[in-house]
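Morning. Coffee machine broken again, so started the prediction first thing and wrote up yesterday's gels while waiting. Chain of 321 residues, entered below exactly as on the submission form.
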Amino acid sequence: MEQTAVTGGVWRRRVRTRGRVPAVLAVLTAGLLVFHRVVPNSVLRVGSLLETFLPWLGLVIVVLSGLALLRRSAAALMALLLPAAAWTHLFGGLLLPVEESGPHDLIVVQHNVSDENTDPAGTARALAAAGPDLIALQELVAPALAVYERRLAPDYPYHAVRGTVGLWSRHPLTDARLLDIKPRGVTEPWSRGLRTVVHTPHGEIAAYVAHLPSVRVGAGGLASSRRDESAGLLGEAVAAEPLETVILLGDLNGTVDDRGLAPLTSRMNVARRGFAFSFPAALPVARIDQVMARSATVDHIRPLPATGSDHLPVTARITLR
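Came back before lunch.
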């Protein structure tokens, strides 16, 4: 009788503790989702690194759910409601059905075509086949630039190129100028910003095309100081833009959750639907190719099929007010 009581006590303790680990991890995951801005960036830029891959914490929830079921832990399953609710709050809206297009919509394509692209003609055909009103390109270099100009001209008679970035349009463009977003310490030729005015049937729009500095992940964490500085300069330019409606298309080398892009995301609307992971093209894990707007709504963003670039193109629908 005494032996049975001891055995029963051990079994009850195991029942109580076997879900403790997944429950604790569930609470920790919820904390990272809700309070990711609290994670410091001063050391190795851990905060930005976390925010780059923030949506992927959903996979952690899936794994923990399987572990909780395997251990038959009701407590762990209850704890998982916390990160599930947090993830749904942050990203669930991106999965909602796409709304129908309206008469004031503008379709845009954003693509870093890569300066090592061996098929610029095929890339140009693929982008034009999506039927956008605007096509923004980065890493435009000779002789590929001439190929893009020739192949896109029939459908996009208006274009502006400054440095290695350009915009092709079905609508007239005016006032194209170089946008200085070069960070301090860059001594080599570096022209990665363009501002122009698009004369659409619905009014004038200031269009910005940008390619922010690359970031690297290594032993020293996330090297993003130049990217962050360039984003700040771009944010200041957008803030000073006299036209009410602004569209920004570019390879920003950061996700919309990354605090390094806060000078832009605090001033502009981002996509309401779609994840559109764009990099790397072989196995996309993050969307660093962005479409943002001021006084307009980015309704939906999605990736297009791969081209000869290491990025996937993305296309977005913008509703003008």
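The radius of gyration is 24 Å. Going to sketch it on the whiteboard this afternoon.
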